[in-house]
Design goal:
seven-stranded mixed beta sheet; about 30% helix
Amino acid sequence: MAEKCLAVITARGGSKRVPRKNIKEFCGEPIIAYSIRAARGSGVFDEVMVSTDDEEIAEIARGLGAQVPFQRSPENSGDMAMTHEVVLEVLRRYEELGKKFDIVCCIYPTAPFLTASRLRESMEKLRQEKVDGVVPVVRFSFPPQRCFVIKEGLVSYQWPENRLKRSQDLEPYYHDCGQFYLLRVEPFIREQSMVLANTAPIILDEKEVQDIDTPEDWEMAQMKFRLLRGDS
């Protein structure tokens, strides 16, 4: 029997640093449109849904072809709500409706660099490598092993033993791209984490990645996006 796959785009209404961030216009479209288009265009999901507590977001999501079968609960709509709890709630609500899924992909609504092909690549990796999860990561542009700390107004190396080591001789470190998490449902429910014990990486180039947490981040993301798109 074919595995059932669900895409969950998490888009609550509240956002303090960038008001209405999840539906704010980004290069001519509500930013959530990019995540919905990538998920639907990938062809790997049986259903693409948006988890939200906000009716305006729900209306926009439906207009873009996503499902909004139920509203997110108040307890999972505040600033302290954890992503894994939101996804668990979605899976539980679907089960109450008689729908069960084998694979779930949590996609952030502010991921304009995400593409349908990247989601297809990730699904193929999940299945071929027989892992429980796939997460996109990007290498730190500067080696953290040579970082500074500031104590009493003075700069010093956190790890002085690394100060003369060449960057290429230090182990590469990576961080989460903040785009999506592809997960097998059973181990996800068991471990209740967005990064499972048996998770494989998809390594992205820095030009495909941008945190969008502040107005400055937003402007930087738009500049990168236009550059990648070839806008003059």
